[in-house]
Protein: Ubiquinone/menaquinone biosynthesis C-methylase UbiE
Amino acid sequence: MAMNMAHRLLCRSAVWERRCVEKVVPWVVDGVGSRAHVLEIGPGYGANIAALNERFDEVSVAEIDPVLAAGLERRHPGVTVTTADGANLPMPDRSYDAVTNFTMLHHVPTAEMQDSVFAEALRVLRPGGVLAGCDVLDSISMRVLHIGDVFNPLDVTTLGERLERAGFTDVDLERRGGQIRMRAVRPRAG
Structure:
């Protein structure tokens, strides 16, 4: 994951982590319930992990960057950290009660690769499990922040259809400011 210096500094800052703990994580997982085992795809520097640990019985993460994954292992010893691409997870089918992602999908270079992340989330969810995530929307300020980064924002006009095509049901999308929250369920049958 190529991120410019300003972006790296923001994502590992105490200010960003506080925002995630106080605002982002509660908004994304509100109503998901106290699921036993959650997987976060693409935690980066780990700004959401403490908040997930407070809400869920067991937290696992899949981080593509081996340096960031090693840092997460050191800072969060109770969390299972796997170095893996969210589009090709080494976890067994039906392993998690919930899968989350927080402002990482815009770093996935193509819509097809984002769809692979959705397919993998579905595969590792138990029947009735919930995908809960959020991402930034396209804006001039986001484009400036991402100069030198991969920036492939989600198309909100097709996101629901893409999640349904991946196999999810009960898709719920909510826009708030410059973000979109997604919620979708793996069907109980199948």
Observations:
- The longest strand covers residues 125-136.
- The chain is about 35% helix and 25% strand.
- The longest helix spans residues 14-29.
